[in-house]
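Re: your question from the hallway

Yes, I did run it. Sequences:
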Amino acid sequence: MSMGSPGCEHTGCTAPLHSPLYISQTHTDTMAWLDEADDIKPPRSLLGLPELSWPGVYLPCYDRLALEESPWVLRMTEAPAPAAPPSSTPEPNQAKPNQPQDPPSGTEGQVEERCLEQVQTMVVGEVLKDVDTACKLLNIAPDPMDWSSMHVQKWLLWTEHLHKLPQVSMMFQELSGKDLCSMTEADFRQRSSQFGDMLYAHLDIWRSAAAMKERCPPEDSKSADDNSWSDVMRNYPSQPIHLWQFLRDLLLKPHNYSRCIRWLNKEKGIFKIEDSALVARLWGMRKNRPAMNYDKLSRSIRQYYKKGIIRKPDVSRRLVYQFVNPV
DNA sequence: TAGCAGGAATTAC
DNA sequence: GTAATTCCTGCTA
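Structure:
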């Protein structure tokens, strides 16, 4: 990753590559994500774009955040550049939709701008939701300034896991959230020359999200996948959490956690643990049980058999369980 | 070998 | 008291 990159040559935006929110033209992985993300994806037709050529919208979901060598970057927290220069003789009601080679008319430009704004809003919402989920799962405050050194370690371990980083948390021991926030990017790079900038960027995301939450609290943070059975999850981070709730929370965030746990049949509540070690480690992090493993976690799941919360499906398969009362 | 099932004791809240 | 953890034996794919 080249941290000294000037930013977007197309838009002239000079935002650094690690800006919390940015658009990438080439992020094919995100394209796949967008194809899957039916719950937040605006219709491509609404954006006036052909199928599969939506300008790459980078959503910083925590297992998708990857920094690129030379992405087309646009800082989303800043006003996007106009899609096209305004027409010298604007005729908003006389658009010619059958001439695709023409530059967009004023109306089309406004529509595109509105669409971009919608995408921005959507992206920011996703960031807030992802941060919120991580807070729940880690039992930490959303604002890094409030973190103790243990919270910092949790966050670092979490980030290591989600981005498959080597152990970087060792480099940041004994640091509180305030310490972390007072560090410059250079300080981060000094502690981890290879991943310091990436961690700094992640911290920046969290700080931005905390600031955004402070500015516009939180009635719109109700996500589309919220529902009655997740109400009990809303009182984080101070509330204890049951294992079944934790699993369900992971399942309700397939964009982030599908590589470790996913629904096989959501209607029937059947799910599969794809990465037992990772799920166990996440659970251990959440409960401050560093010795947690899948053997112990699965024993806890089996305790649910008697309680009628989780059971094995009728056709029993390894690592597959079923909520007795699905959504 | 990893996962599954369940007993029993212990721990944390 | 409850939920979860820890440790265990034995079984299965």
